[in-house]
């Protein structure tokens, strides 16, 4: 019924296979892009109104403050309110030991 979709899957299959090595909890956080797009939108809104920055450090400070503000509005530091984040964080800790501060 959809030969274009089948062709797209076949062409991207080698790139997609590594994604399947992650646990379902991690995969869900990776493919749930609504939260990521929302954060990107907030950061674009912050930087767009400024025009130009006197230095790279000024831009970094503004983005840091914006992220800090987003975290307080979206449910805290861990995962910025992403559903299923605690399960994914546990799966990350198991799959990538000694990389996360616990």
Oligomer: single chain
Major beta sheet summary: none
SSE succession = HHHHH
Calculate the mean pLDDT score and round it. Answer: 81
**How many angstroms separate the termini?**
49 Å
Coarse morphology: extended
What is the domain tally? 1
Beta-strand portion reads under 5%
By DSSP, the count of extended strands is 0
Give the arrangement of secondary structure elements.
Blueprint: H1 3-16, H2 24-31, H3 34-48, H4 56-73, H5 85-95
Helix pairs in contact: 2-5, 3-4
Walk me through this protein's architecture.
The structure is a single chain. The chain has one domain (24-95). The protein has helices spanning 3-16, 24-31, 34-48, 56-73, 85-95. The chain is extended and about 50 Å long. Helix 3 (34-48) crosses helix 4 (56-73). By secondary structure, it is mainly α. It is built from five helices and no strands. It starts with a helix and ends in a 7-residue tail after the last helix.
């Amino acid at each position: 019924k959809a030969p274009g979709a089948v062709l797209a899957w076949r062409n991207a299959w080698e790139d997609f296979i590594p994604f399947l090595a992650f646990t379902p909890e991690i995969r869900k956080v990776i493919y749930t892009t609504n939260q990521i797009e929302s954060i990107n939108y907030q950061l674009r809104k912050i930087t767009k109104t400024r025009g130009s920055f006197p230095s790279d450090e000024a831009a970094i400070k503004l983005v840091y403050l914006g992220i800090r503000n987003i975290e307080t509005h979206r449910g805290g530091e861990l995962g910025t309110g992403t559903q299923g984040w605690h399960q994914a964080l546990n799966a990350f800790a198991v799959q990538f030991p000694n990389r996360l501060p616990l």
